[in-house]
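#lab-general

N.A. 3:47 PM
ok so I finally got the sequence cleaned up, no stray characters, all 319 residues accounted for. can someone with queue access submit it? mine expired

B.Y. 3:52 PM
send it over

N.A. 3:53 PM
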Amino acid sequence: MFQKLSFVIPALNEQDSIDKTISSIKSSLDATGYPGEIIVIDHNSRDRTAEIAEKLRATVIRHTGGTVATLRNIGARRATGNILIFIDADVTVTDEWARNIPRVINELSENKKVITGSHCSPPDGENVFHRYWFSSLARDPRDTHLGTGHMMLSAQNFETIGGFNESLATGEDYDFCQRATILGFEIKNDPSLRVIHEGFPTTIKEFIKREKWHGQGDAESFRNAIKSKVVIGSAFFIFLHLTLFLGFITQSGPVISASLLAIVALLTLSSTIKNRHESIRIIVFNALIFYLYYIGRSASLFSALGKILKRANPVGKNK
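B.Y. 4:20 PM
back already:
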């Protein structure tokens, strides 16, 4: 069966990484011999992203407005290949990926109900977030869902599932996999398809900002929120800090102690569940990082609440 690969890459101000991403894809296509195309959907970048992509002979589609899900759907509709590979603009494919992709492509070409790809690995180095948090995520063996940082399936199956939900600011990959699972699709995380996410955060500020952004999907609606364990955990995190603050105000030692113990328990439990495939050392380190994680996710809840209040009381309503 004829096999053509279509790489779909949404991009916004990615001039520092798009060159490396496209070059790694082209090298892999050359190594495997598969015909392919690279489609970059530029979301009104204010830098040289589109220009660099065009010089590297990628197909560039300029689009303003919509969500990242919108961009991915636009790219998928434009694609001419029978295999769609969704990848982020700061993700590079490796030699290991190229060695293992023929086996995967053969399976996908049969239009089996399969979504595959892999969890992105961080670059090598000693950064704490990369070494503990993101390396652990990359090694997670669970197949509950795959991120659109690196996801692939047949074009036919993409149409069957119905594309990405364009109303979601984030979390469109999780929603896509959940809808696919209901339709009987198998989600297969394949660690042999190793890709490197060059854009993982390296500082506390970047990490919190990332988690605030990722939390928007769950916080966008009450229905999503009540089904999300992360939202429930974040709400509990907020409640415990309010209780801790009250304890300090009232100078109540038992309240302070109980609140601190509960916060430690929440962080430890969260890390143990998330990293149950890891060593005790990594679980302990990631329990500390979970504090920053919940700060970011709590910020997304406050942001969503602010939007709700703004809609309930628009400017000028009471004038």
